[in-house]
């Protein structure tokens, strides 16, 4: 398998489509940054991501609040491609003006 094809960013890595996208990217030799929404009230098991073949070396998981643009930009930095797989994002009116 060809390695070191580059880094790709996938938002929504905890979701069905995001997790399958991550799986396929890892299988095809890409490194992946993924963002997940952190919710202290609903801790979710991420072993379905961390146990993927190649994940220990090539998967970085970031807790993200996508309303904070600077965090998203840091996670996208250096990515060849980005898959923005968001289910719902509620923006406050004052954030739209920034």
UniProtKB/TrEMBL annotation:
Q: Which residues form the NAD(P)-binding domain?
A: 10-71
Which parts form a coiled-coil structure per UniProt? none
Does the entry feature the keyword NADP, yes or no?
yes
Question: Entry's Gene3D superfamilies?
Answer: NAD(P)-binding Rossmann-like Domain
Pfam families cross-referenced by the UniProt entry: GDP_Man_Dehyd
Q: What UniProt keywords apply to this chain's record, in alphabetical order?
A: NADP, Oxidoreductase
InterPro entries reported in the protein's UniProt record: NAD(P)-bd_dom, NAD(P)-bd_dom_sf, NAD(P)_dehydrat-like
Q: A GO molecular-function term, please? A: oxidoreductase activity, acting on the CH-OH group of donors, NAD or NADP as acceptor
Q: Work out whether the entry's keyword set contains NADP.
A: yes
Q: This protein is called what?
A: Dihydroflavonol reductase
Q: Which organism is it from?
A: Quillaja saponaria
